[in-house]
Amino acid sequence: MSMSAGERSERTANPTQAFVPGHVTGFFSVHPHDDPRNAGSRGAGLALTDGVTVTLTPANETAATTITLGGESVEMAAVTRTLDTLDVAARVAVETPLPVSAGFGVSGGAALGAAFAANACFDLERTENELVEVAHAAEVAAGTGLGDVVAQARGGVPLRLEPGAPPHGALDGIPVRADRRIEYVSFGGRSTEAILSGDTDILSAAGERALATLREAPTLEHLVSCSAAFAREAELLTERVDAAIAAVEAAGGAASMAMLGETVFALDTGLSDAGYEPSICAIHPPGAGVVRPDAK
Amino acid sequence: MSMSAGERSERTANPTQAFVPGHVTGFFSVHPHDDPRNAGSRGAGLALTDGVTVTLTPANETAATTITLGGESVEMAAVTRTLDTLDVAARVAVETPLPVSAGFGVSGGAALGAAFAANACFDLERTENELVEVAHAAEVAAGTGLGDVVAQARGGVPLRLEPGAPPHGALDGIPVRADRRIEYVSFGGRSTEAILSGDTDILSAAGERALATLREAPTLEHLVSCSAAFAREAELLTERVDAAIAAVEAAGGAASMAMLGETVFALDTGLSDAGYEPSICAIHPPGAGVVRPDAK
User: Measuring CA to CA, which residue among A226, A265, A193 is closest to residue A44?
Assistant: First the structure.
């Protein structure tokens, strides 16, 4: 009697863990394409030490009941699509200190982490670019993000110069020291799908302007000021976000809004200095990777 | 009275430190080009936690007397060219636990570290790709290396798919866990310049074959076996290196030769198991970066 792929997997592989940095996008433009591998965004953001840990265990099928976020069953279309593309079935447990749907790339991180963990767990022999392509295409097809996956795979302070997964897209980065402190507060979630499915012309024009301006003087401080200008021009600011950015700037700091969430991020002690009680993390130079392979 | 750039630098900037992972190339092919930014190598290797720390201080000129390696004055043409291209003058102190001219990318690491440190120290506002391009071109022009700089900038287990600095070159990577142990022993140095200035046709043909073979099943173990085949086909093995690789393989491990040095690297405890007393390090997932900016 022959075994199915699922049965074979259950017998030969063990739990595997991957870590993917969180990612806040400061500004972006939307670049649709019929092929989700080529679709994506241009823009800039920060990869964060607060990230997404994915623990993957072989299973007979990947289903809604086999994906958990903080212990609760959730539907994560980007994760399901990633595993389907890789032709494996697994249970996936996602853990993160980051708020969900608040602009930190949790869904993209879960997809990318699942891809890296599955590659190690099932000995898929894919390269890093191939895994990034699978997770990016799954995230784009799910409608939950356009640029987080390629940025999270790179780490640091990624500039997304051309949209899409490798080898289609092109990245650069702003050099910063590894332990540069980042603070954030989140007032709630925004639906990336709802905004991306609407008219994005004004947003994209503002995003293209921000990228061109940043490239004239690519520093972290300039990234944040270009992001704040973008958030205003694209009319994405809520009252609470607007007030927090203004408070940080009044205290001499630099802050902007995470795309897309009702979230403010600041350099150094910006939010603390303005009287907020932020979460504290740092820039994460490495990209996604496997942290605990199977028990072999 | 107007100040020169050097005088201005002395007054406004402080010491800055960058870290660059070491890098052993397992196999490579040579791809010359009139423009050193486009010249380079295809191949594969490992970025290592044993690396190069560069401490840079503004100076009135960059000269032989202003560059030190382990406290001794040295000539490092790749470093001098890097600083000249960036139009700054500095004292550069290079420290490393790695043997020099033994295939670990110390010269490329010194050039890349100097580029990152100079960017932070002098507020040059260059992107990471731009800094990599400057250091890569300096290393190629100096004749001391063809592919270490782009690999060291990336980290992990870099596959050099297309030669040259970004945006000319193209990289991928083999996913491995961060703490994967690597051992090495070095019996002495080989001159990269001497080998690269000779006939490299046989070497390059073997390197292209190794890359094509590795890409059929891109794993770390396969990288090492493709490297060992390359070293034999390119006739680069010395007796001591050949004996060490054979001893590791006889003990059930995987080892090959670092290009270009009389150096053997092995996965996990390969050299220890074969009775050697190796240096021990690990794969280093992040690329080069500033670890201590100026005192601001």
Answer: A226
